[in-house]
């Protein structure tokens, strides 16, 4: 029996998401554009898409929440089941309470995020059975286009290039999905061990408390929670995600320059959207980890821009040759050092 109440998660997510100004797009009409974008992405990156491109789906927020809850279940069920393994006369009631609470929390996160996401290449890293999906959020694209004062069709095409680039990355690099899945599984295993260890809690001594305060002040809460070994693993995973996202950011501009007349205006508007957010959104994004996502975009894009400026697009393609040639966190800040090692 699942510990998390996933039906409650869906209901809470939909309640918080709101409807948005849903303007149904031409899903069938988007597919030929997406196929053209994929061909352009392959030509620019040197990557070869081995499988057919997923069908573009223009969905609403409810559909996005449903898709992401389905993706999250293999990630969260192993951890949440540990929380529900207690015994005693109140164990059943506690499992029910924790399941409802966790379901409400998952729903709140997905509901809030569904208001901001424009597109997603949805791939289940820990479950090979579901086929990847190319999702564009029609209400959010319509709202963003109106708020930013840009053409909705061009914004939709530009976001589609980003997500198509992800499809090319995972479709052309056969080891990438398994590489990320392996790191993610190891992280989840570490979280399970931490949950089990927390049941034998003891009060820290004075020196441990002082160390705790210093590390909290240094912003190392996640590092403190995971431990040094898991933190190093998280850093490697974050570096890989920075390359994935930054590469898509770089490519969406390179390919967009070929097909979008107002690309510069779109890029300026998107930069404003990311940096000129109201304070409630800034707080929520920090709590939900979205600031880390924005840093992935920026750091990865700067790395890719610099590699291409120094050595051309073919040099950047080397990063997808094997896991050993992925840039480290330090190399993302120093593209020249990665070029010296990889080319």
Keywords:
343 residues, mainly alpha, Lysin, 3-stranded mixed beta sheet, 16 helices, 3 strands, globular
Question: Can you lay out the helices and strands and say which pair or pack?
Answer:
Layout (H helix, E strand, L loop, with lengths): L5 H12 L9 H19 L10 E4 L1 H23 L7 H23 L5 E4 L10 E5 H11 L3 H21 L3 H22 L8 H12 L3 H6 L1 H32 L3 H13 L3 H10 L1 H22 L1 H5 L11 H5 L1 H8 L1
Parallel strand pairs: 1-3
Antiparallel strand pairs: 2-3
Helix pairs in contact: 1-3, 1-4, 2-6, 2-10, 3-4, 3-7, 6-10, 7-10, 10-13
Can you describe what's shown?
The protein has a three-stranded mixed beta sheet. The termini are far apart. The protein has a domain at about 5-200 and about 250-290: Lysin. Helix 1 runs parallel beside helix 4 and helix 7 runs antiparallel to helix 10. It is about 70% helix and about 5% strand. It is globular, with a radius of gyration of 21 Å. The protein has helices at about 5-15, 25-45, 60-85, 90-115, 140-150, 150-170, 175-195, 205-215, 220-225, 230-260, 265-275, 280-290, 290-310, 315, 330-335, 335-340, and strands at about 55-60, 120, 135.
């Amino acid at each position: 029996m699942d510990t998390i109440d996933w039906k409650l998660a869906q209901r809470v997510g939909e309640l918080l998401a709101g409807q948005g100004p849903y303007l149904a797009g031409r899903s069938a009409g988007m597919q030929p554009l997406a196929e053209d974008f994929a061909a352009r992405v392959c030509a620019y990156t040197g990557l070869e898409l081995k499988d057919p491109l997923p069908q573009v789906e223009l969905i609403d927020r409810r559909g996005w929440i449903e898709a992401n809850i389905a993706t999250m279940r293999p990630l969260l069920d192993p951890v949440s089941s540990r929380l529900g393994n207690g015994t005693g006369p109140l164990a059943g009631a506690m499992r029910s309470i924790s399941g409802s609470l966790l379901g409400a929390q998952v729903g709140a996160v997905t509901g809030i995020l569904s208001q901001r996401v424009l597109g997603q290449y949805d791939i289940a890293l820990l479950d090979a059975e579901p086929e990847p999906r190319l999702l564009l959020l029609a209400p959010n694209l319509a709202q963003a286009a109106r708020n930013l004062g840009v053409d909705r069709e061009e914004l939709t095409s530009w976001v589609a290039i980003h997500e198509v680039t992800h499809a090319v990355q995972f479709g052309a690099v056969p080891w990438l999905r398994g590489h990320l899945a392996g790191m993610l599984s190891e992280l989840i295993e570490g979280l399970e061990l931490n949950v089990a260890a927390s049941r034998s809690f003891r009060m820290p001594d004075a020196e441990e408390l002082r160390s705790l305060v210093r590390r909290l002040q240094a912003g190392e809460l996640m590092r403190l929670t995971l431990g040094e070994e898991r933190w190093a693993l998280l850093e490697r995973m974050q570096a890989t995600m920075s390359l994935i996202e930054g590469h898509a950011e770089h490519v969406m501009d390179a390919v967009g320059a070929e097909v979008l007349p107002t690309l510069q205006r779109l890029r300026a508007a998107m930069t404003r959207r990311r940096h000129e957010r109201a304070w409630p959104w800034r707080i929520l994004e920090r709590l939900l980890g979205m600031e880390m996502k924005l840093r992935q975009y920026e750091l990865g894009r700067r790395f890719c821009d610099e590699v291409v400026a120094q050595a051309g697009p073919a040099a950047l393609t080397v990063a997808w040759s094997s896991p050993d040639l992925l840039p480290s966190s330090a190399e993302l800040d120093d593209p020249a050092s990665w070029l010296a090692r990889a080319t």
